[in-house]
Amino acid sequence: MPTTVKGVIARAKGAPVELTDIVIPDPGPGEVVVDVKSCGVCHTDLHYREGGIGADYPYLLGHESAGIVAEIGPDVTNVAVGDFVVLNWRAICGDCRACKRGEPWYCFATHNATQKMTLTDGTELSPALGIGSFAEKTLVAAGQCTKVDESDPAVVGLLGCGVMAGIGAAINTGQVTRGKSVAVIGCGGVGAAAIAGSHLAGASPIIAVDVDQRKLEWAKELGATHTIDSKGLDEAGVVSAVQELTDGFGADVVIDAVGIPATWRQAFYARDLAGTVVLVGVPTPEMELTIPLADVFGRGGRLMSSWYGDCLPDRDFPMLVDLYKQGRLPLEKFVSERIALDGVEEAFAKMGRGEVLRSVVVL
Question: I need a surface site. Which of 129, 256, 294, 350 has the fewest CB within 10 A?
Fold first, then answer.
């Protein structure tokens, strides 16, 4: 029987979110119903509310989650009822050209649940990133569930998006290893996670760059060895500051966790010759970049974009949860506050003011 639960929706562009009744259908083939235990408040959810991703309102917000499998549909074999899972928004197909060449983290045909969750009047909801987990229950594709060792859901659920994106940008995309120098521009949730990932990999120095002193303090707690307050600095000033901390050469890997032309240019010029730039901050469609092609050629190296930290959830989530449980990855430091479902709108405001790394809804 379909189930009616409480969920947080964005009904129209820019309108405050609403806590309302939503209907979860029984899972069909390849689908799973999850009892949501936690959901981080991510910038992506705010982008949905503001119309920055699309206009398929109403949206069922939330996607950075952990929970317990409540029901499974036919043909589901990867999880069972009662499993503790972290949700991911890239269920790989296993059959596209990326999957066939052994690079499933680039899967070009990721998929979501086929059925739609609805309002009680039958209006279909568009789930954020195919998940929609600011709700007591949600319906997802089985491949969006990654079984991990049971742990604090408010902490490990953050691997479902921002924390994985940042850690993966450093380790998977940037190939940060022991002894490499790293600079991270933008130290919100994703940037802070890139710093944590660089620290985990043994990088040194690890340079945090931000205009907000509070975020720089968070970065130091997560492994930054040096900080640069870039408020008031122009492009040349940021580049010079990074070079001063890297024997005049620039960093081996520079991660742009902001995603605007100005910060990407800072990253490009703040890296060493043959160094790597990783773009993990998400630009908006109208942004354009101008840079001398001779500089691209002359500096060499790699200019990379990181999609979801180029992660493979079945590989990466269990490993990172294990490292957290060993005390080697301080995921708990990303949880600034724990809130109820009716606190999402205020959490958006706190996020906009830079007061939190993550507010986490706990159910």
Answer: 294
CA proximity to 126, closest of 54, 42, 41, 65:
54
Residues 150 and 77 in one domain: yes
- With H, G, I as helix, E, B as strand and everything else as coil, classify residue 329: coil
Total domains in the fold of the chain: 2
- Res 241: pLDDT: 98
* SS3 of residue 286 by DSSP: coil
Question: Among 229, 166, 228, 160, which Cα is nearest to 198's?
Answer: 166
Looking at the fold, whether 13 and 144 belong to one and the same domain comes out as yes
Specify the CATH number for the domain of residue 214: 3.40.50.720
Alpha carbons 191 and 200: distance in angstroms, whole number: 14
Hey, what's the torsion of the CAs at 132, 135, 141, 142, to 10 degrees?
A: 140
For the chain, the distance separating the N- and C-terminal CA atoms, rounded to the nearest angstrom, is 22
pLDDT at position 71: 98
Say whether both 204 and 84 belong to one domain. no
Tell me, yes or no, whether 147 and 175 share the same domain.
no
pLDDT tens, 250-295?
A: 999 999 999 999 999 999 999 999 999 999 998 988 999 999 999 9
pTM of the shown model: 0.94
Q: Is 146 within the bounds of a domain?
A: yes
Same domain, 154 and 230: no
Label residue 167 left, alpha or beta by phi (over 0 means left) and psi (-120 to 50 means alpha): alpha
Query: Contact, 160 vs 40, CB < 8 A?
Result: yes
Domain containing 58: what range? 3-160+330-362
Query: Residue 83: what pLDDT?
Result: 98
pLDDT < 70: residue spans in the chain = none
Q: Which of 10, 44, 16 is nearest to 345 (CA)?
A: 16
Instruction: Identify the helix (H) or strand (E) that includes residue 219.
Output: helix 213-221
| Residues 113 and 181 grouped into a single domain | no
- The pLDDT score that the predictor gives to residue 156 is 97
254 phi/psi in degrees, rounded to 5: -120, 125
